[in-house]
Automatic annotation (TrEMBL):
The chain crosses the membrane at residues 70-91, 122-140, 147-170, 190-217, 229-251. Residues 103-212 form the Prepilin type IV endopeptidase peptidase domain. Keywords: Cell inner membrane, Cell membrane, Hydrolase, Membrane, Methyltransferase, Multifunctional enzyme, Protease, Transferase, Transmembrane, Transmembrane helix. Pfam families: A24_N_bact, Peptidase_A24. It is a multi-pass membrane protein. One of its GO terms (cellular component) is plasma membrane. GO terms for molecular function: aspartic-type endopeptidase activity; methyltransferase activity. One of its GO terms (biological process) is methylation. This is Prepilin leader peptidase/N-methyltransferase. It is found in: Cell inner membrane; Cell membrane. It catalyses: Typically cleaves a -Gly-|-Phe- bond to release an N-terminal, basic peptide of 5-8 residues from type IV prepilin, and then N-methylates the new N-terminal amino group, the methyl donor being S-adenosyl-L-methionine. The keyword Manganese does not apply. Its EC number is 2.1.1.-, 3.4.23.43. It comes from Sanguibacter biliveldensis.
């Protein structure tokens, strides 16, 4: 099962490369078929095998020899690894599809946000519907309607919290972060309140630490814009993976 999930993740990662390139440009992710941006040569199926094709082609287009960015296999590998980690966390459970979907959009949004400092509505807004349907299905399958109510409340809480932060300090983050917060809040709160608390707090700790390192290394100044979306998603991953245990340990230490 782990091998199957890994292969699924690699294939999804290959598609996410298309999503990350085309969606910000307003292009279809279905048509036309993938082609080399240098010579326009259509990429054949045998040349589109995740990771392996990049290695066999030695990171160059077979037609014109233009270099193929290492970002492509990195996205595929990252998605494969994330899918395996999600499977190890949830197993063959009703809520597994929701978190596999969350991992997939996290990879695509991270690439886009790093490149363009944007979190496109074309990915974020439909994800509300997808995540809602998947969590409702999970609640129906398990009978845990309390978890669904907690997820809805968590999504609303994190959305409102980010909205208030943007309202108070617009230069700190964008509305894309606010919209993403609702999805992450729902996925975190489905796991538990501790996961929500750790996931939300970790985003600011990790993002702040990264910004501080850049300032110390003189790679950025106090006014430099740093995409916050990737840190939101990394914090959410920490909350989903170990948030309940971290929060429980924190309460034990304090009490």
């Amino acid at each position: 099962m782990i091998a199957l999930v890994a292969v699924l993740g690699l294939c999804v990662g290959s598609f996410l490369n298309v999503v990350a390139w085309r969606v910000p440009r307003g292009e279809s992710v279905v048509r036309p078929p993938s082609a080399c941006p240098g010579c326009g040569r259509q990429i054949r199926a045998v040349e589109n095998v995740p990771v392996l094709s990049w290695l066999v082609l030695r990171a160059r287009c077979r037609g014109c020899g233009e270099r193929i960015s290492a970002v492509y296999p990195a996205v595929e590998l990252a998605t494969g690894v994330l899918f395996v980690l999600v499977f190890l966390r949830f197993g063959l459970a009703w809520d597994l599809p929701a978190y596999l979907y969350g991992a997939a959009i996290a990879v695509a949004l991270t690439v886009i946000d790093i490149r363009l400092h944007r979190l496109p509505d074309a990915i974020v807004l439909p994800s509300y519907v997808v995540v809602a349907v998947l969590l409702v299905t999970a609640a129906a399958g398990t009978g845990d309607w309390g978890a669904l109510a907690r997820a809805a409340a968590g999504g609303a809480i994190l959305f409102v919290a980010y909205f208030l932060m943007v309202f108070a300090y617009p230069a700190g983050m964008g509305l894309g972060d606010v919209k993403l917060a609702g999805i992450l809040g729902a996925l975190l709160a489905w796991v538990g309140w501790g996961a929500l608390a750790v996931g939300a707090f970790s985003a600011f700790v990790l993002g702040g630490a990264f910004a501080l390192v850049l300032v110390v290394l003189r790679r950025a100044g106090r006014g430099s814009g740093i995409p916050f979306g990737p840190w939101m998603m990394l914090g959410a991953a920490l909350g989903i993976g170990a948030g309940e245990q971290i929060f429980s340990a924190y309460l034990d230490l304090m009490l």
